[in-house]
Amino acid sequence: YTCALIASLPVDRVDRCPPNIAFDQSGRNVDEAVEQKKPAEWIKRRYKIVETVGMGSFGIVYKALDTHINSHVAIKEMKLAATEERYREEVQKRFIREVEILSRLTHPNIAKISDFGQTKKSLYLVMTYLPGGTLKSRLGKPIPFSIAAGLLVPIAKALSYVHKKGSIHRDVTPGNILFTDTEEPILSDFG
Q1: Least buried of 62, 68, 138, 153, by fewest C-beta within 10 Å?
Q2: Per-residue pLDDT tens digits for 107-121
Q3: Is residue 12 annotated as part of the catalytic site, yes or no?
Q4: What is the pTM of this model?
């Protein structure tokens, strides 16, 4: 592998990089880059990671098995080391605000939170796993009006509920609308 490839490798292949590679393309120490792509130890104690389902600039989303209740969940983990020092406190506040908002909301079209945790290195949020993917992944081809309306009406009702509860979503995008296994649209990511 070359240094430039490290950032794009799947999690299971990053561990197999040759030891002679010291830095990735952004100049970060490879050991730090690898560490940021692994789930924290405290996640592994309760949850069995099944796969990585998403990766963003601040964190990773895993599909995992909650070993206490034998059910699949989604774990959103924010790695603090991935955030510049000067923005770290603001990013933490936004993540915690998302947790607080989601914990107060009970609506059939809003993602449900089941756990939250924080360490010196990361924050995590555990939610219901939604296997139907995102609206973003379904774009690119025409969607019939009746189907589009059937997706947007429940999201509009969820947003109305959020506003009545005194909150604002702040990031309604196709990537933040997920689907259940029965094709119900669910609003997520209140960061």
Answers
A1: 68
A2: 999 999 999 988 888
A3: no
A4: 0.72
